[in-house]
């Protein structure tokens, strides 16, 4: 409770200091606003007097308009895009192995070359046959469709 009271007193002191600072800033702004119009009025009055005393017919000057030079577009330099190596799916590897073989490939060779387990190869071969991407030429031998 004592700590809370101290914190509130500290906050109130800070707020008092801030209000004093804002009041002094407001006074300074008021003084600046009063000074500026007086100077402007004097400057305008002096200009009017000068204009009245020195009224000569001045010939109007014609402004010449210069053609602006157009900028040539710089060729855009594109950064070389480096393609990330994408992982080939298991069915993709089996399909490429089947497509590479001219006479056909059996399941045992698929296991060796792909490094996949037997059941997984059987499932992939079944799925590829169903999709029509490969066909069976004999028992356990597959060719591209």
Task: Please tell me about this protein's structure.
The structure is a single chain. The protein is mostly helical and 145 residues long. It has four helices and three strands; from the N terminus they run ααβααββ. It has helices at residues 2-53, 90-100, 107-114, 118-131; strands at residues 105-106, 134-138, 141-144. Strands 1-3-2 form a three-stranded antiparallel beta sheet. The protein is elongated. The mean pLDDT is 81.
Give the arrangement of secondary structure elements.
Blueprint: H1 2-53, H2 90-100, E1 105-106, H3 107-114, H4 118-131, E2 134-138, E3 141-144
Antiparallel strand pairs: 1-3, 2-3
Helix pairs in contact: 2-4
Derived structural class: mainly alpha
Question: Which stretches of 5+ consecutive residues score pLDDT under 50?
Answer: none
Question: What is the CATH topology descriptor of the domain at 90-144?
Answer: Arc Repressor Mutant, subunit A
Quaternary state reads single chain
Per DSSP, what share of the residues sits in E-state strands of 2 or more residues?
5-15%
What is this entry, summarized?
This protein has 145 residues and is mainly alpha-helical. The protein has helices at 2-53, 90-100, 107-114, 118-131, and strands at 105-106, 134-138, 141-144. The radius of gyration is 45 Å and the shape is elongated.
List keywords for this structure.
145 residues, mainly alpha, Arc Repressor Mutant, subunit A
